[in-house]
Design goal:
The complex is a heterodimer of chains A (1028) and B (474). In chain A, 28% of the residues lie in helices and 19% in strands. Chain A has 1028 residues and is of the alpha/beta class. In chain A, α10 links the parallel β11 and β12. The longest helix of chain A is centred in the N-terminal third of the chain and has 17 residues. Helices cover 71% and strands 0% of the residues of chain B. By secondary structure, chain B is an all-alpha fold. The N terminus and C terminus of chain B are likely disordered. The two termini of chain B are 39 Å apart. In chain B, 49% of the residues are buried. Chain B contains 17 helices and no strands. In chain B, α6 packs antiparallel against α8. Classes of the chains: A alpha/beta (1028), B mainly alpha (474). At the A-B interface, β29, α28 and β33 of A face α6 and α11 of B.
């Protein structure tokens, strides 16, 4: 196909090779003889999509045949799909692999350089589902973080007993592995090329750089915590002493770093112990949703909000924020303020708490807040936390350190450690330095490992044009990444990067704990990890496995290493790597003087940048699960929008139609420092007035088939000196309208008692009062005798006090149950397929409403209205109380869905589950039927997991024990708001929750007798601020 | 109504003009046997044929892609499919009412419209039947709704109103077809005897099934016809009652209503008579059948429309009353939403079309005005369609949980199937007019016999049917 790239056969080489060959050697053709590597290259060039046996055109059947062959021939030949490396499963050895029964392997999911501990479910060598690793500090299970000393408890069916929590990103990361748009071959100037061509070119370039001691060599990475990778980079920098290593992440804690430098004179890592805090104040920090410890923090926060009869105690959360966030939505008191006002608020609070700063005069309302919060914090010295977000300047971060210090929280609820990053740098400054060098022509070789700086660098740094110039000036620019993206297009070389489930590595968690990234599958395409890339630059060809093992055997010593290695792979954490707490000395004068330099005023419209809650900084733009996931609060899918407050919208005459199919919204033009940006608006209740929130991560031009060309690119107006907040932007209506697809069109409970809400005081007085129970005459009688539920009676209880609306359950369900995505147009028509949704209702004032969240899966009604109306009996009841669907019996009348008062049924209006790319079929959970067109589906309580547990229990001759069945949503939930189990077992957790006085069923008055029930939402408002 | 009859007894008769048995036979059979048809027939049939192609296209695309090409969604799982199903079934009802109940009640005026109305029933039920077959997600397994013995032992679920529907509608279609065909046999024999064309002779001869006009034939015919009439009578009530149970059995506010069965039956007759008028008025003019389809017929049909329309309107009022009286917030919201929600224009239009405008039928002058009657019949047809739209869509689109509320907007394919069935119906009706005697010849002759001033009809109470068999045979 691309003949010009073919190398002529080197006959001399072949002769030499044949002479060197020992023993009998059979050969099929000259090309094969010439070099198997080059032969491969020719193959790749001829048939680029078949270059890997798992190329995009491989069908599932072919894959299974291949798998069978590779199992049979293991050891004889090297096959891609099964790892030839020894990976250690949870308990059973690979040789004990039983077809049809999954194995679980511990690994870690790196995002922003930080680890989330995971257990990956693997079916016959094919990873299908990610669970949290309860041993890992960033993904605690319902029992918290399981200590490494406790041996791995397993259910009889081999599933881990303790699953850890995850977030939506972790759950969806498996889809990226199988994304058919991933780059599948090295590219040279946009043309298909081969790895060997690249290594040859790289070796030449390195030789050139070696001559000048690396003076023209620059490496740009994302945030690196990996000890192995950092070690390799240090080795490289030693070899090329003039070379420089830069790091850049668009969403990175630069301000926190600078704040720590002000407060303590050195960078430190701050860890909050929300499990010990009675009072929490967040200043624009969405700590429950974003950041490396968000899952842990959500878990810790929730441990203090489990209100039960007789144990009615809970923490209190204040949130002062500039954009309605997940954390703000669950706050007991939420105050929307513009960023500049938050600065003033922080100064006033610091002063009220005895930090010697002068504070501006606040409006009376805010003053009241400051006093109330200060009193509350003072009353809980050493048992409170003040946490601040990245949007606030370093001086505020430093000030908050001083506040926590003044409150005696340091060492109690706020713990400091050494930085987790291998080299803690200010990423913006690091990139600025690189850009300066590029502009000055000092850079000849630029190796970009991961990231997408051409897309997400600050606008004023003009990274993309400098990169383009560098490439055009014959600079040797390389981009290693999962996708051939915006940055790859501007580089000389693009090298496909291995997905984290394909290559070995290591990564640290927020507290420094190291996890080994254990791959679950051989690379699907000829790709390399960042470590392998550096190793190649060093002139070696070690595999990622060798690299990681070499590092750790050196660090741990070779004696007993194999045993230790097996243990750390098995556990998913390397013992004793969590960073110890360290003492810090607060430099009060520095903090005060920095704080006094703040000018908390702003002119014109203020702008806040937030990473998108689903596609983050843009890295997940091509992940359909995350694109279709309704974003927290807005429930928007497939787009980003500029968030404006209702009053601002009214003032500017901006309209948003709601209640129809798509939300038709006004398109505005935002002008900031000469840059223009056209974007749709979203009127956001709870947004501060005159404050616009711009959402990063969209407007990608080379993301892939899913993510290209949707939304607006907020990076266009993001400047390096105004990364998170800016002021002085202007907004103009363009007159255009744009459709946005949101999954929830109505935001009021319409006076219906759907989520029962009460205060802690009310709960203490009369816990049952929170819920309006049906009075005796409303008790529903039946003409028929009651059905007696014997054996297991599965039931679920969801604590609405704990739900933070983070969507982890929704994504987990999607991954577990092979739920398809349907696209924006179908979502706008109201045809999204999620089996569990999070209903969000607003209550109270439009400018600062209370938010109430309610996850709604199938209620599995005992008197299910869907069942009697099905003409073919495709939906019926199991004796264990499951309302089940026989997909192959369903004819698709949709009557069941019409008659479902909870509207939890989902219909395949079109052939949604129709992967054009067979590689996506590898993703499917083999235990769950893939539904075809015209079939109704819904939540099954993860019946496949129930069945697996029941089979094992029957083998053991006993009942299924409490905790042996964990549904996908339950496992993923960071706050453990969902419990599932047998309600006939009076000791089970689900029975205990059902006995709570504030337990109720949704729409119970319809006599549906739901098995999924709820605990009423308990708030803990401050009496001084109640009504505020 | 009683006082009305006395006051407004029209001066016209059921057969106008001077007619003999021969002239009746000639007038009606010549439509079928002559080759010259009004130009309008060709125009209308061509337009209708075009819409049949629209139907074929829409259905083909539907089968290829799935019901997602329609506007249905979550929460509105049923849209045009069920709206049109109920609408068509309702339209069919007038035919059965006219042929069966009015026969049993010895209403002579049914004679000139029953053939026509029965044909309408059959084609309307065909149109209606298409929707349940096509609206399912997997139409290739729709036969699972039938109780067919099979090796899996899987039977339909007899608790589901949709299964009752299957039985009700198939029974209805079968009985209507039988009734229609049985009533046709003497006329087919007449056509056989009068046809000059060999092909027509053969076809009508086969269809006449050897009718030789003997007294024995008439005797058996009468028994069979009466029995079928008796069989059809409960169907008039049962079919639409059962269709209404599709809604009433569910628990959705706006559907879960005990008033539905009678209210649906009244609505069905209402829309059925409206459709008869819509068709009869132009065809009567086209084929100059004013002598047989007299103003008296139109007048009485208008009166039935007025009566059933009032029942339907009472139904609307009772729905509102029940919601208010129930103190059930979901029911109350439903009524508020109907009056003021996003689909309020449909509801108000429904009240105007079905409740307000038909009130002009109180006036005898309006009932004597053919053009106005035609317009009103069209309005009632639209109104009854709107009623089904309001019932199906406004109930579903906002039910219990506001988080799941949505909207329903039909797509071009919804309209394609709907207009396609109207085209199919019209096409079939025009073929019927062309190839089958649109008015029952033998019954008209019998009517002439009974109403002839020189041969007064036997006193009321004597069986019409027995008179037919003995006296009408020429």
């Amino acid at each position: 196909m691309r003949d010009k790239q073919r190398q002529p056969l080197n006959l001399d080489e072949i002769r030499k090779r044949l002479e060197q060959a020992k023993g009998q050697h059979y050969w099929r053709g000259l090309e094969e003889l010439a070099d198997s590597e080059e032969f491969q290259q020719i193959l790749e060039k001829e048939f680029p999509r078949q270059s890997s046996p798992l190329g995009a055109f491989l069908h599932r059947r072919q894959f299974l045949k291949l798998m069978g062959a590779s199992l049979a021939l293991a050891g004889l030949t090297s096959c891609r799909p099964l790892s030839m490396r020894k990976v250690v499963p949870q308990v059973q050895q690979p040789e004990e692999m039983i077809p049809g029964r999954p194995l679980y392997f511990a690994s870690a999911f790196p995002i922003g350089g930080f680890a989330r501990g995971i257990l990956v479910e693997s079916h016959e060598g094919r990873p299908t589902k990610i669970e949290g690793n309860a041993r890992h500090p960033a993904s605690p299970g319902a029992m918290g973080v399981i200590s490494a000393q406790i041996p791995a408890p397993l259910n009889p069916d081999g599933t881990p007993k303790h699953l850890g929590a995850t977030d939506a990103f972790t759950q969806a990361s498996i889809l990226t592995l199988y994304d058919p748009d991933r780059s599948q071959s090295p590219m040279y100037q946009g043309q298909l090329s081969a790895w060997t061509d690249f290594t040859t070119a790289l070796a030449a370039e390195m030789g050139k750089q070696a001559a000048v001691r690396g003076a023209g060599l620059r490496i740009l990475t994302e945030n690196i915590t990996s000890p192995t990778l950092a070690g390799l980079i240090q080795e490289l920098l030693k070899k090329f002493p003039q070379a420089k290593w830069h790091q850049y992440e668009p969403v990175h804690a630069d301000n926190a770093l600078e704040g720590a430098k002000i407060a303590f004179g050195e960078p430190v890592n701050t860890i909050y112990r929300f499990d010990r805090a009675d009072v929490i104040l967040s200043l624009d920090a969405d700590f429950l949703y974003s950041g490396p410890a968000s899952v842990r923090y959500a878990h810790d926060y929730a441990t203090r909000r489990r209100v039960r009869a007789g144990a009615a105690d809970m923490n209190r959360l204040y949130v002062v924020e500039s954009t309605p966030s997940v954390t703000g939505s669950v706050a007991d008191h939420r105050l929307p303020l513009r960023p500049s006002q938050i600065q003033a608020f922080a100064l006033a609070l610091a002063r009220a708490l005895g930090v010697p700063v002068s504070a501006p005069q606040l409006p009376a309302e805010q003053h009241k807040w400051v006093n109330a919060i200060a009193r509350d914090l003072q009353a809980h010295r050493a048992r409170s936390v003040v946490v601040t977000g990245e949007s606030l300047p370093p001086a505020i971060h430093a000030l908050v350190h001083a506040i926590n210090h003044a409150l005696g929280n340091t060492g109690q609820t706020v713990v400091y450690t050494a930085p987790v990053e291998a080299q803690p740098v200010n990423h913006t400054e690091s990139l600025r330095e690189l850009v300066r060098d590029m502009a000055a022509g000092k850079v000849e070789t630029l190796i970009i490992l991961g990231g997408n700086p051409a897309y997400n660098a600050p606008a004023d740094l003009a990274f993309a044009s400098l990169l383009k110039d560098l490439t055009q000036r014959n600079g040797f620019t390389v981009h290693l990444s999962l996708y051939e993206d915006e940055t790859s297009a501007l580089c000389l070389w693009h090298i496909p990067e291995s997905h984290y489930l394909e290559a070995w590595g290591d990564v640290r968690a927020f507290d420094g704990t190291v996890s080994i990234i254990q791959p679950l599958i051989e690379p699907l395409y000829p790709s390399r990890s960042a470590g392998e890339m550096i190793d190649t630059m060093l002139g070696r060809q070690r595999t990622s496995y060798d690299l990681v093992q070499a590092y750790w055997s050196k660090r741990l010593g070779t004696a007993g290493f194999q045993k230790a290695w097996r243990k750390m792979l098995h556990d998913g954490v390397v013992p004793n790597t969590a960073l110890p707490p360290r003492s810090v000395t607060l430099r009060t004068e520095a903090v005060v003087s920095a704080a006094q330099k703040l000018k908390p005023t702003a002119q014109g419209m203020e702008v806040v940048f937030i990473p998108d809650p689903n596609v983050w900084d843009g890295r997940f733009a091509n992940n359909g699960w995350l694109q279709e996931l309704p974003k927290p609060l807005t429930h928007l899918t497939w787009d980003n929008a500029i968030l404006v407050s209702p009053s601002t919208a009214q003032k500017m005459g901006l309209q948003m139609d709601t209640g129809g199919l798509a939300n038709m919204v006004d398109v505005v033009e935002l002008r900031y420092r000469g840059e223009k940006l056209q974007a749709p608006i979203w009127i956001m209740p709870g947004q501060p007035d005159d404050c616009l929130t711009l959402v990063l991560g969209y407007g990608r031009t080379r993301a892939g088939k899913v993510g290209t060309g949707i939304g607006y690119n907020a990076y266009k107006v993001r400047f390096s000196d105004a990364l998170w907040t800016a002021s002085g932007a202007t907004l103009a209506k363009t007159g255009e309208r744009y459709p946005l697809a949101s999954t929830q069109q109505h935001h009021s409970m319409e006076g219906r008692e759907l989520i029962h809400v009460g205060t802690l005081e009310e709960f203490r007085k009369d816990p049952a009062h929170l819920v309006r129970k049906p009075s005796p005459e409303e008790e529903h009688l039946s003409l028929y005798p009651e059905y007696r539920w014997e054996g297991s009676a599965w039931a679920m209880v969801i604590d609405t006090s704990l739900c933070i609306g983070c969507n982890a359950c929704v994504t987990a369900c999607q991954a577990e149950n092979n739920i398809p995505i349907v696209g924006k147009e179908q979502v706008a028509r109201g045809r999204e397929m999620h089996w569990i949704r999070i209903d969000r209702y607003y209550e109270g004032r439009l400018d600062n409403p209370s938010t109430h969240l309610m996850p709604v899966p199938c209620m599995q009604c005992e008197n299910a209205p869907c069942e009697p109306v099905c003409p073919v009996g495709a939906t019926n009841h199991s004796e264990e109380g499951l309302n089940q669907m026989a997909y192959n019996r369903c004819v698709g009348t949709r009557y069941c869905s019409n008659n479902c008062p909870y509207k939890v049924r989902r219909f395949n209006f079109l052939k949604y589950n129709d992967p054009k790319e067979p590689v996506l079929q590898l993703l499917n959970n083999p235990d769950v039927t893939v539904r075809g067109r015209g079939v109704m589906e819904k939540c099954t309580y993860c019946v496949q997991r129930i069945n697996a547990a029941r089979i094992e229990a029957k083998k053991l001759g006993r009942e299924v024990q409490d905790g042996e069945v964990v549904t996908a949503c339950q496992a993923a939930c960071p706050t453990h708001a969902i419990v599932f189990g047998n309600m006939n077992d009076k000791e089970s957790v689900v029975s205990q929750w059902k006995r709570q006085p504030h337990h109720y069923g949704l729409l119970e008055e319809l006599n549906t007798r739901p098995r999924t029930t709820y605990l009423a939402k308990v708030r803990n408002p401050n009496p001084d601020l109640e009504g505020a | 109504m009683q006082g009305e009859i006395v006051r407004t007894e029209p001066a016209v008769e059921l057969i106008e003009g001077r007619h003999s048995y021969e002239s009746i036979t000639h007038k009606i059979s010549s439509v079928v046997l002559s080759y010259r048809h009004p130009k309008a027939w060709y125009v209308v049939t061509a337009i209708a044929a075009f819409f049949v192609f629209v139907l074929i296209t829409s259905v083909t695309w539907l089968l290829l892609r799935g019901v997602g090409i329609w506007g249905i969604n979550q929460p509105v799982g049923w849209g045009f499919d069920i709206i049109n199903f109920v609408w068509w079934i309702g339209i069919g009802h007038a035919g059965t009412l006219i042929s069966a109940i009015l026969l049993l009640l010895r209403q002579q005026w049914r004679t000139s419209i029953n053939r026509f109305a029965e044909a309408m029933t059959i084609f309307a039920v065909m149109c209606a039947g298409m929707f349940p077959l096509l609206h399912v997600g997997r139409p290739w397994v729709v036969y699972w709704l039938l109780p067919i013995p099979n090796w899996t032992g899987a039977w339909p679920q007899f608790r589901s109103p949709l299964i009752w529907d299957v039985f009700a509608v198939t029974t209805y279609l079968t009985v209507s077809l039988l009734f229609w065909f049985t009533g046709l046999i003497p006329d087919l024999a007449t056509l056989r005897d009068r046809a000059k064309n060999r092909l027509a002779q053969v076809i009508f001869g086969v269809l006449a099934m050897g009718w030789r006009n003997s007294a024995k034939h008439w005797h058996r015919f009468d028994s069979a016809y009466l029995l079928l009439a008796g069989l059809s009578t409960p169907l008039v009530v049962s079919v639409h009652s059962i269709v209404s149970l599709d809604f009433a059995v569910s628990l959705i506010p706006g559907w879960h209503t005990t008033i539905f069965p009678p209210y649906f039956v009244a609505g069905a007759i209402y829309s059925g008579f409206a459709m008869v008028l819509t068709l009869v008025i132009p065809i009567r003019a086209l084929y100059k059948m004013q002598d047989f389809l007299t103003m008296k017929h139109l007048d009485w049909m208008a009166k039935i429309m007025l009566a059933t329309g009032l029942i339907v309107f009472y139904g609307y009022i009772m729905e509102i009353f029940t919601a208010l009286y129930s103190a059930n917030q979901y029911e109350q919201y439903l009524i508020t939403n109907r009056f003021f929600g996003p689909y309020a224009p449909f509801f108000w239009a429904l009240l105007v079309c079905n409740g307000l405008i038909p009130q002009v039928l109180w006036s005898p002058k309006v009932r004597q005005n053919v053009l106005l009657l035609f317009l009103i019949s069209l309005i009632v047809n639209v109104g009854m369609w709107l009623e089904r739209f309001v019932i199906v869509v406004t109930s579903l689109h906002r039910d219990f949980l506001p988080s799941s509320w949505g909207m329903y907007v039909p797509t071009v394919w919804d309209w394609g199937v709907y207009l396609g069935t109207i085209g199919f119906f019209t096409f079939m009706m025009f073929l019927f007019v062309r190839f089958v005697p649109m008015i029952s010849i033998f019954e008209m002759r019998d009517l002439l016999h009974q109403t002839d001033r020189h041969h007064p009809a036997p006193a009321t109470g004597t069986a019409v049917t027995s008179a037919v068999s003995t006296e009408v045979t020429p």
